Structure formats: structure tokens, C-alpha cells
Amino acid sequence: MVHLADASSTLLEAAFFFYLAATFLFGGAIRQKGLREGEALNRWGRLGIIVTIIGFAAQLGYFFTRWAAAGHAPVSNLFEFTTFFGMMIVGAFILLFFIYKTTVLGLFALPVAIIIIAYASMFPREINPLIPALQSHWLAIHVTTAAAGQGILAISFIAGMIFLVKNIDQATSTKKTKWLEAVMFFIVSVIAFILLTTGFAMADYKAEFEYVNKEEQAAEQEFTLPALVGPNEGTLLTKEKMEPLAHVPAFINAKKLNTVIWSLAGGVVLYVLIRLITRKRVAASLQPLVRQVSSDLLDEISYRSVLIGFPVFALGALIFAMIWAQIAWTRFWGWDPKEVWALITFLFYAAFLHLRLSKGWHGEKSAWLAVVGFGIIMFNLIAVNLVIAGLHSYA
Amino acid sequence: MEKKKKRLVIRTAILAVLAGLVMYTLYTNLTKESRGSLEEGDEAPDFVLRDVNGGTHQLSDYEGKGVFLNFWGTWCEPCKKEMPYMEKLAKEYEGQVEILAVNVGESDFQVENFAKQYGLTFPIAIDEGKEVMDTYGVDPLPTTFMIKPDGTIDQIVIGGLVQEDQLRALFERVKPSS
Amino acid sequence: MGKVKCECGRLNPAGTILCESCGRALTEKAKQDKLVDMRYEGSARRSQTYNKTLIDKVWNFFSSVKVGIWIIVLLLVAASFGTILPQEFYLPSNVSAETYYEDVYGTFGKLYYMIGFHDLYNSVWFSALVAALGVSLVIASLDRVVPLYRALKNQRVDRHETFMKKQRFFAEREGKLEPAEWEKIKEALIKKRYKVRTENGALLAEKNRFTRWGPYVNHVGLIIFLLGALLRSVPGMYVDELLWIREGETLQVPGTNGEYYVKNNGFTLQNYKAGEDPEVFNEAIDRVGTVAKNYQTDAVLYRNKNNEMPGAEPELTRVQEDSIQVNQPMKFGQFAVYQTSFRQDEMKAMHFALTNKETGEEFGEVVIDLFDQQAAYDLGGGYKVELLGYYPDFDGFTKEGEPTSKSPLPNNPAFLFNMITPETPDGEVSFAQIRNTMEPLGETTFKMAFKSLDTRDVSALTIRKDLTLPILAAGGIIFMIGVIQGSYWNHRRLWIREKNGQVYAAGHTNKNWHGLKREIRSVLEGTSVPEPEDRQKE
User: Fold this and answer.
1) Does one domain contain both C55 and C144?
2) ipTM score of complex
3) Touching check for A6 and chain C: CB below 8 Å?
4) Residues 40 to 69 of B: which have CB under 8 A from any C CB?
């Protein structure tokens, strides 16, 4: 079993590098305009999709070998879930690629998947046994369906983002360019988080704190990034590590806040650096990559992904969730934060569809909505698990 | 014109049904707390309990008399305070208003010890599984139900009765009128 | 408000944008637009046609999609507020919400509590918002599905050329079509599962019309779901009770009117252990410490024949035995019993030894059941211990020197003993707890030395009955059928018309225009019908 687990990790790493390679291949393919009738994919595009599929197969290999090693579907903690979510984005991309044959979609979808998988790897990666509440077949059914729905909806965001990069006028600074830069900054911050966490982990940075928690009891917390903010009445136990600049009240988790501060600071540094080097807005630097693709096609891909993803999401994140909650938690609905945010996601996409169908929100408006929708999904993945405590706070 | 009228009728009907459903939901939502519990004027549910001496007490046996149905526990301070008054009035109103003290599931030893300590002579029943307590929806102790000779609840008193006059007034209200 | 007569002779309901029959534009705006608005086929949405009485105004309000979207948005924003701080029902049971929010979250918490966000989802205004959504679903759907149905049912094959010209996909060409060509197109369309009708030199091919009903089907599902949720408050539909039951106890199952009893034959808590469980878990167990593997109550269910009156001695017959685990509730009748929580090692009995303080000699042991004490424990040989008082949750002494108990639960048991021995026939009084003894009435020769403790676990079981589940399930299934029906197919139409030496071709789909384009191309390939162009492209 342990060998199987090792093989599984190797397959995941392999998938990661295949996705990286595929990104560059798609980069080479974008000179080809959106496919006209009778036109075949150019060599780069063909190679790109083949490598993507190989990567996807490798990740499926990771998934099933880990399943065999653990004895349960590997979607039971943040690392496993987030990795699976990344895989579903790739899967959804492959699906939509075969419908629309648009290489530029890969150029953006794969990096997003790569960042998400890298982000997943910042969490504890060992195979964990299932607590009683998770010991059910519904774990595999509910979580995979919900993640698949979210993965497909993510493609809507990616198509929407490409639409915005292409269509927002970068000649002058406007509200729109600023918002788009905010999206870029968020992505850059996630990258900064990954780089910082990996860096300090390689340096084996550990600082132990003793503090008073919100139940007014003594507790300990281990920081793996230097503490800019320390816990409530915290004292540093590990020698020769950085003393915090400030302390937070007991109800705030200092370690998580510290990580957020580091990520944002790292994001600012990285973003400024990019701007200094390119002398352009990030979106403006990306614009030449997407010039060839038709806006109308992007709009359709974005809408189509919502149409495909919405029913899957509703089934996985609400209906299957309710069935399982009735079995495990005695009630199908309990206003747990994760449940509420799944409902919010559902309501948001319902509003999206109504705005599109009845109010005619196409093109740019629709693209912005797709970006916001993905923002809600990411909020549910990151903030609700890490910041808002609830029944879903595993890992 | 005929068609228009018909449409108005249909719309009114649908809206009325929807409004009814909405009102019902809001109403049940608002009254959720108090629903299902006993209120003054309700019939007191019958029950049967044993006492420490092995005798049984059934509420319906007391029909025709007033009943002072008191739920209590040995640890509860206000319960201790009202016991002497209860003892006094039990003797005074004998044959007219009966006291039935229901202990909420403590051991026979504790109940007997308590009765001895306070010199209580009125019947004390033990609600071992707290079934009667649940039926009556008793939460804080002590809670007293004043039951009229016809078996309906005259008053529900939550909390201790700290003055003899208070108790006397309650007894007077449920005394048979003959 | 009369009907609108189209040039083709059809009488259309007031407010119609495109003639139900031939498709001519009827309103000034529609006449001037370059492309027609094909939502609801240009039929008259009922709400738009009347606005007179109060009823009509209310009706129109809820019929509006704009209002519907606002309700959805308000609902989602409101729902998010409830997740900022934990809701009241998730607080630990021993704290009061009134002080908790302020104590833990400061001024913000106090404000949150004052606004009422601590119990947001049960608030009247939130319920009202959900109700508004329900009303909007009913009225908006009714208002649209009827006219849409009429429009799709009444559509003519030979649409007017102005209708065709205003379609997003359109092309025209001078010329005529040979009968053989008509046949060829027809065949190709039938192969693609189109329903084809021809009339007066015109052709209408249509497929997947059913997908247009998808939104209404899913709305019906949602309405059924909401009705199911509403039914929960009808008495008898729903039971939600919590039962704390100690090992060995047999208690009435709450919510069953005394019909069922349950016995706790033992509670088990298992943790994962390195060595016993698969090796792959070792690393995780090392890092986290303990990981629970199983919470289980071995339960026996009884039916009580004597359940007419509360308090009556039950007459039990065994119904079934089950190991209740998380994810594996015990089911009987309409009820399910769940493993919800537990408390380990509650004190059950205490062992004391009557001991000579000086010599340490022991004269026998008494076992006091904390739930059923005796007045006296005879140890033989003239040694006897009388129990004068029992204080399960000892809390100190009153001014008068009376020991008091804070609750009936044996959290901190204390005893007042009278120890009778041949040396002290009148007895000596001792006050004993686990860790210490006191001599309130003067120094004694003997003491009750604490020896050991018997404990047992307490299991919390949730008893649930929910007769609304089948209705909710039906609503959920219908909803899913509706969304799939509406999302995974496209309603496609192709019109071809030959008139006065011109050939017109137009296409329409409710979504996925690229798919339609590809399909039309393959159908018209090799014919003289012009391929419709997408005229909305930039």
C-alpha cells in the first residue's frame, strides 16, 4: 500500500509537468485563428491537447492509485479536494476543447489548473484516515460531483477572463482595467503564497507560540512563516525566530491572518516587479495572446460552460449534499457555512442565467459575471474552509 | 370583457392561495417556540406515577378537587423555600385542594431524605423517565400547574412561590365551589 | 384592450410583438429593429397587458424577471451575512447568545447579535424573502409558459419574409428551388432528427422543442421543494429530538408518544492506531495525534404496549437490535435514530472503605450507586454506614451549614455519612468527597476513604422523523429533470422560403449558435439554398 501511495505521488508530479508543457504548446498554437470550417488544428495545438490528455490520464492514475492505497476516495481533505478540483478544470477544458477547438482556452485554463494544484500542495499531503462522519460512499459521490460542477463553471470564468483581456481597452486606465488588474493581482498573490510557503518550508522555518485562545485557555500554535502578527497574548517559544510586530485578538486565527498578510505582501512585490519589467498592465501584456480569438466564440464558450456546469453543480453540491447530510448529520440542511456558500453559488449562477436569458446580458457583462461566479467558488474553497469554522473544516 | 373578468378571478385566486401559504409559514415560524406546549385553559393531561412507598397516583383520581401539581428537585433552592407553605396549605385545604409533588427523577433515597428533612406529608411521586415532565413541557424548576376540579389548567406558575399569600390565592381559585 | 390584427389576418392578444402566425412585427419598435427579439417568441407576456387593479399590479410585480433576479440577489447577499459569525444554533449549549457574541467578538459581535444576524435564517424577513421567491416562481412561470406554448403551437410554416429577414441567421438569393432539391434538404434534416413541415413553397424544420419547457419544469420542481419545506411545520410531519442515554439505561424514545423505548447496551469510541490500521495512515496519525474511527451505540429498541398514559409502567417487547453509528442510523417505522454525540466516563458508582484513621485498618467497602442510594450499608460485625445526605453536584455550604448541590448530575458527588462501629455505637459523622473528607461535628476515629470509581459513557441520540422527505425528493428530481432538459439540448429551427423568385433561409436557436451554424452548413451543403450568415458578429 505504501508503494502504491508513492507511485500515486509520482503520477501527480508527472501530471503537473505535463500540464506545464501543454501550456507552452498551446502558447505556440495561438497564432492559428479560431478554427474555420475544414481547417485542422495546427501541429502545436494537436500536441498541446495530446499532452494535456496524457497529463489528465496521469492525474487520473494518481487519483485511483491513491484511492486504492487509502481505501477511500481521495477527496477527504483540502489537499485532496483541491487537487481533484484542479483535475476537474483540466477535464472540463478537454471537454470544451473538443466542442470548440479553441487553443487559447488551454493557454489560460492549464495555468489556472496548475496554480490550483500547486496551491493544494501547500496543505498536508499525507493520506489520512476517515473520521466517522466521512465514512460513507456519499463522500465519493457528493464531493466528486460538486468538484466536477465547479471545474466546468471554472471554464466559464476562464473564457470570460479571456474575453475581458481581449475586449477591455487598455489604452487608458479605466474602472474596468483596474478591476481586471485586481483579478490579475489575486492570481499573482496566490502564486506568491505558493512561492513563499515553498521557500520557507525548504528552509524548514518553524516558530512555536504559546497563547491564550478564545475559550481563554492556553494553547500552542506553530508558524511556518515568520510571524508578522502573533496570536493573542502569544509568547515565542522557539529561539532566534522573528518576534511578531503585533498581536491579534483571540477570535482571530493569527496563523491564518499571518499567511494572508504574507501572500498579499508577496503579491504586491511580485505584481510591482512584473509591472516594472513589462511597463504595462498585466492584462495588457496578455492581450496580444488573445487577439486572434473571436469574442463571440468566447462568449458562447463561457455561457455553454455555465449551462453544462450548473446542473452538475446543483446535483453534486446541493442535492447529493442534502442526501448525505440527512444520513450523516441527521438533517438535510443545517445552514452550515459551506452549505450556505454552495447555495449562494447556486443562486448566483441562477441569477446569471436569468440575466442572460431575460435581460440580455451578453458579452462583457456576462464575462464579468463569470469572473464573479468563480470568485464565489474560490471563496467557498479557501475562505470558508480556512477562515469560517464549520462542519466542513476538515484537514 | 368576459375573458378579462375571468382572468382577474384566476389571478385573485392564485394570489390568495399564495398569500395564505406565506402567512401560514410566517405564522408557524413566529409561534414555533410556544407550539405544542400546554397553556392555561387546556385540559391537564392525565398521568400515573408511583411514590416512594410503592403507591400510585393518577391525576384523574383527583377529579372534583383542585390540584396543586408541583414539579421539583432536591437541589433546587426555590423548591425548598416553597415546601413549608405547601405543607401548611395541604393540611388547611385537605379534601378540597390536593397537592401532588412530582420529583423529576431522583433516587428514592434523595426524595425520602428530603421529605423527612422538611416534614412533608403530602404525596410525592417520582417521574423516573421524566415522561410526565416532558408531557407538561416543564423546563425550569419549580413549575406549578393549578388544576381546576374539572381537570383544566387554571394557571401555570414558573418559578418559586415565596409568599404564603401567593399560594393561598392560587388554592382559593381552584377550590371546588360547593 | 382589444386584439391586434395582423396583416395576415390573425388576431393576436394585445401586447404581442411578433404575429403568432406569420411572424410579422406588430409593434413600432419591433418594426424598426434590425434583428427581432425572439425571447418567448415575441408573444404577449400576460402581465404586460394589464395594469389596472391592485391584483394586477401585485401580479405584475411578481411576474417580472427583474424582480425575480432582485429577490435572488437579496437572498444570496442576506444568506452570506449569516456566515460571518457562527449562528446561534452552533454555539456551545452552555453559553448564552446574549453575552457570547460580545464576549468573543467584541463590539462587532454585540452589533451582530443586536441586528439579529445570530439567528438570521429563522428570522421573519429571511423567511419572507424565501416566500417572495416562491411566489415569483409561480407567477413568473405561469405568465410565460402559457403564451410561449401558444406561440410555438400556432407557428406557421410560411413565415413572412420580414420575420425571416430579422432573424440572426439569415441569407437570401435570387432563384428557384427544384423539387429534387427540396427533397434532398428534407431528407438531410430528417436524418438530423428535425421535424419537417412544408407548405406553399416554404419549409420549417424544428427539433428539441421540449427543451423550451425545461425552465418551467425546474421551476415546478423548486415550487414543490418549497412546499415540502413549508409542510414541515404542520403538526405530525416532523420530529427532531435529542436523547442523552447512559450505558445500561432504558428510556422512552421522545417524539413517539411513549410507543418506543430504547436501551443503551454500551457506547464505543474507537481511534485509529498506528500498527493496527493501514500503514499509509501512520504519518497522518503521527501529525494529528488522535483520529476517531468509530462512534457507536449498541441499542435495543422496544415497543411499549402500555403507552396510553405518561408515567405508567411500560410493558416492553423487543423490536430490534442495532449498532448505531455515524452514517448508519437505526431505522424503525417513520423514525431514524442517529449517533450524534457522547460524553465519556460519567461517574456511576463510588467505592469507599470504612477505615480507622490511625491504624489504617479497613472494615469493609461500600459501593454507592450514584443514581440509587441506600439509606444504610451494613458491613457486618457491628460495622454499619448510614447515609445522611447525598449531594450529586456539591457546591459548598449554606450559611446554616447545609451542603448544597448545584444540579442533579453527579459531577462532584459528596456524601454525609454516619459511621457506626463497635467502638463508636452512636456513630461518627463524616463528610466525604473524592479527594477529601471533613468532620463537621468534631474529630472522628474513622473515616470513609475513597477507593475507586465506576464510570460509564453517555450517548446522545437524535431521533428524527421527517414526512416531508418524499415531497422534497420529488421536487429535487423534477428540478434536476428540468435543468437537464433545458440545458443539454437546444431548440433549433430552420426556415426556407421561396417567394417571388427569391430564396430566403433563416435559422434560430435558443442557445449554442455555433452548433446550429455547423448543422445548417452540413444540411445545405451542395444545394442552392444560401447559407444563413450570423449577423450579430462583431
Assistant:
1) yes
2) 0.91
3) no
4) 45-50, 58
